[in-house]
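Can't paste images in this forum, so I'm doing it all in text. The chain is below; anyone willing to post the predicted structure tokens underneath?
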Amino acid sequence: MYTRKNQRNLTSAERRRFVSAVLALKRSGEYDEFVRTHIAHYVADGEDGPRAAHMTPSFFPWHRRFLLEFERALQRVDPAVTVPYWDWTADNTPAAALWSEDFLGGTGRAGDLKVMTGPFAHDTGHWTIRGGVTDRPYLMRDLGRPSAPIALPTRDELAWAMNEPVYDAAPWDSTVTSGFRNRLEGWMSGGVERWRNHNRVHRWVGGQMLGAASPSDPVFWLHHSFVDLLWDRWQRMHPDAVYLPRTRLGRGDPQSGRVMSLEEPMPPWHVKPSELLDHRNLYRYEV
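Text version of the structure:
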């Protein structure tokens, strides 16, 4: 049992150890494998094949396993390292501590959005983007999107999702307007409000965080650690709620074979959502 901490409570030594372990995975090539895994399983509504990672009920368990795989890789480098979480309702400006030069570095420069500070800046020689959505080899960010400002989700916007008592609903994709999963994942229609909660955070960071290669930016892991914590909080708020769909969808359902019900294994690990509903035998969150 280990603890995932709020990034704002990390000691300077804990920050250094996390950054060092991430850089070690990058040097070994293992980090880029995680990016490729996310790209391969980012399957949108209209694409063919199983949809396990996004726009689907298994969004939460899939990312829990993905995060665990990454954390275990970090712990093979340094057993003391865990993935901290970023509460974006509290640390909600580019001046927040996680963007400091000794941790994740700051926003990108005007023009090409190239990150120039911190251990993941390309010019330090530590961080080269491979297999991303652009051919640029450097990390990009556009914190807050100054050219068309966007704000991080507020506590009220988060509560709108957390108060939803049902886990998910048909048609089990990005278009569903009810259910906790999509209210937190954040695929909604209509202007800037299209991007809610989890999705708004990706838009606010910008750069590589905008697409399927979002793990190219190490902030991805802190973001999804908080998303994982929010799923846990939602379960505690709604103890009678269950993962939906409970059973395999019928052949007449357009999502049959594409959406994972409770006991259908998720690629690439062939682990069922039912096996990932509770994390308390593995880790806890500092709150």
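The chain is about 30% helix and 0% strand. The first helix runs from residue 12 to 28.
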